[in-house]
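Hi F.,

I've been meaning to write this up properly since the lab meeting, where we talked about keeping a consistent format for the predictions we share between groups. The idea is simple: the sequence comes first, exactly as it goes in, then the structure tokens exactly as they come out, then a line or two of notes. No screenshots and no reformatting. I'm using this chain as the first example so we have something concrete to point to.
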Amino acid sequence: MNNDYKLTKFVQAAGCAAKMGPGELKQALCNLTYKDVKVLVGFDTSDDAGVYQLSDDLALVQTLDFITPVVDDPYIYGQIAAANALSDVFAMGGEVKTALNIVGFDSKNVPKEALVEILRGGNDKIRECGGALIGGHTIQSPEMFYGVSVTGIINPKDIKRNNGAKVGDVLVLTKPIGMGIITTAIKRDLIDIDLIKHCARIMSTLNYLPSKIMKKYRVSSCTDVTGFGLLGHSLECINENISFEIQASNVPFIKEAFELCKNDVLPGGTKRNAKFVEDKVSFKDSIDQTLRTILCDAQTSGGLLIAINKDDAKEFIKEIQDCGFEYASVIGEVLKRGEKPIIVD
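Output, unedited:
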């Protein structure tokens, strides 16, 4: 779609909405309680989606997410926003069934044709994984946002929680990190169109196939890496018996993000994430500040972080790489609990 406006500039001028940091969110939720035996997964464990049991072999998987524009093309923005929300169901091992749009749009400043393209992009991603768009809600808003509320299904026996990793498992990441830095650079007109297209393709790629393929292997936990960054989401996966050891040199990232990070091209969320994890992570002295920051970078539509039996990892990675996830890598392993929950070397 040809246009003479820039969605990201419009959002930047309006004051881009920032995701709450992990510490703030935990504090906000700490007094909320519920008692329902049918709630198999709630908000108490920071999992990616809620799960509600309907019968012995059927449960609902539910989530909602929305984002402000990260690229200027409205169709691609719609794709990325939908992929970002759908990923929460895939991270639980669920199958997407239905979705509802949630939209904030300023028709006084942005052509209505852009809204058509945003919704078309989202719908195409929902259909790609077999889901059906069945409605939604749109408001006039001075700040643009788009996302979806998603309902999926799963057998309760097949739920992939974020905190079930076993000692001896290895950690696989399916997409590169650095997207928060890249999207900040897009807003500042600091990168060329080829890099924008490359990163947009990664962000708009569904985690549907890795989620589907991992069911064939011995996977003990899964989460998706989004706003809290790789280290923040890794912390959510830790239980009292384990630590994650992450080999920084094996973590895939967009190489251009490194130089941008050195020049302080960073979203606010990345800086908050780095502050939150600083006393919870043991960094090897050779890990410089730039790399430490990238490991905390706030992602949009990031990859799955999967704890998998080490004997299955090579075949799993080969299978998803053949499906287009060329960055997929083993980035670490699960250890017995050490002094810190996360070790980066």
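Notes:
The chain has twelve helices and 13 strands.
The chain has a mean pLDDT of 92.

If this format works for you, I'll send the rest the same way.

G.
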